[in-house]
């Protein structure tokens, strides 16, 4: 897999699932970052299609054969998008903080705890094992990012060293007002004023996207490209990283205990499951059953139909950082270790998970 570094020329606009129609209140539109894989993959494929001669309308059969069409990716496969930050020791990959990580500030910095399934309790879900931990008074879920070493500690069932990186250290939002102009007079068009929130990355922060299945000659068209990505036609610079400078998958070795395999699935990218499992049920494609979970509020992710020039249907995705606590039989260990992505649209980059223990 070849990895691409994508950096904004100025700022970006990625709309979320809130209304963006005439008469709607739009002052908070633009809250989805990192952008969905649909957005980034769409920008990459559109750029490659333009390099193959496409300008507008439907793609030719030749382009569809190489790049697919819509949800059909042909032979392409993507990974990400993931966040990366340049540091004193070089590039540092960043991952959404797992939602079973709680913390609060104290005199020495941050005090953190990891949630694990507790004893069975009676609640509106029946008798279930809810996530719990000792000495968590005053603590809350830590919204932000962790580096690879910290994520590995969490996957081992350990409290990570250091602190969670707040989003404010990675990007900021800028309120902007725009209007549509009359084509002939170039004056403001009545009732076409809008307001959005743009994303501006902190210097040294960029997106990483993995790509495979593209012919080498076509892939070179991406290196050094400047392409529109997201709303308003705002641009991003693309740089192809050298082979071997990609993103390795983070995994924790797992072994059976008393004939059972207890493992966690930590979402690195959003995942789409037709139905979210309850305790005692199975996750499609994953051996065993769910014991407990720390799952965030659903992300409403859609996309843009460039042919019909309209948004596509919004669907509820499991947010990154969500954690499933699962249990399987010992003889299912190899099947557990083979899980790296779950749900639908994995070819786009959705559904990537990291395996851990609890």
Short description:
The chain is mostly beta strands and 358 residues long. 11% of the residues lie in helices and 37% in strands.
Description:
The structure is a single chain. The protein is mainly beta and 358 residues long. It folds into three domains: 2-88 and 193-241, no CATH class; 91-167, no CATH class; 256-357, Immunoglobulin-like (Sandwich). Helices cover 11% and strands 37% of the residues. The chain has helices at 37-51, 61-67, 148-155, 216-219, 333-337, and strands spanning 2-8, 77-87, 90-96, 101-106, 109-114, 116-123, 126-132, 140-141, 145-147, 171-181, 188-201, 205-212, 226-228, 235-240, 260-267, 289-294, 299-301, 304-305, 310-311, 315-317, 323-329, 353-356. The strands form seven sheets. The protein has a seven-stranded antiparallel β-sheet with strand order 9-3-2-12-1-14-13. A four-stranded antiparallel β-sheet has the order 16-21-15-22.
């Amino acid at each position: 897999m070849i990895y691409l570094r994508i950096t904004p020329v100025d700022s970006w606009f990625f709309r979320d699932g809130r209304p963006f129609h005439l008469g709607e209140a739009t002052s908070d539109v633009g809250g989805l970052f990192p952008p969905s894989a649909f957005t980034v993959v769409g920008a990459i494929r559109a750029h490659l299609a333009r390099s193959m001669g496409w300008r507008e309308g439907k793609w030719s059969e030749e382009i569809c054969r190489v790049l697919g069409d819509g949800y059909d990716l042909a032979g392409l496969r993507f990974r990400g998008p993931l966040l990366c930050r340049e540091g004193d020791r070089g590039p540092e990959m960043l991952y959404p903080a797992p939602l079973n990580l709680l913390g609060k500030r104290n005199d020495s910095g941050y005090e953190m705890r990891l949630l694990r399934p507790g004893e069975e309790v009676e609640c509106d879900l029946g008798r279930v094992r809810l996530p719990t931990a000792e000495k968590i008074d005053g603590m809350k879920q830590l919204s932000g990012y962790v580096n690879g070493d910290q994520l590995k500690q969490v996957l081992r069932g350990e409290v990570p060293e250091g602190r969670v990186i707040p989003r404010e250290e990675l990007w900021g939002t800028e309120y902007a007002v725009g209007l549509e102009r009359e084509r002939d007079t170039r004056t403001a068009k009545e009732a076409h004023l809008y307001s959005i929130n743009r994303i501006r990355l902190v210097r040294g922060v960029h997106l990483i996207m993995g790509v495979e299945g593209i012919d080498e000659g076509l892939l070179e068209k991406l290196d050094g490209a400047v392409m529109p990505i997201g709303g308003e036609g705002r641009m991003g610079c693309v740089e192809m990283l050298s082979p071997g400078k990609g993103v390795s998958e983070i995994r924790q070795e797992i072994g059976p205990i008393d004939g059972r395999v207890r493992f966690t699935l930590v979402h690195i990218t959003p995942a789409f499951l037709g139905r979210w499992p309850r305790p005692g049920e199975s996750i499609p494609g994953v051996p065993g059953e769910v014991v407990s979970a720390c799952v965030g509020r659903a992300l409403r992710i859609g996309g843009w139909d460039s042919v019909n020039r309209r948004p596509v249907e919004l669907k509820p995705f499991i947010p990154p950082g969500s954690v499933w606590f699962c249990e399987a039989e010992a003889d299912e260990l190899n099947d557990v270790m083979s899980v790296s992505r779950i749900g639908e649209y994995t070819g786009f980059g959705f559904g990537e998970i990291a395996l851990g223990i609890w």
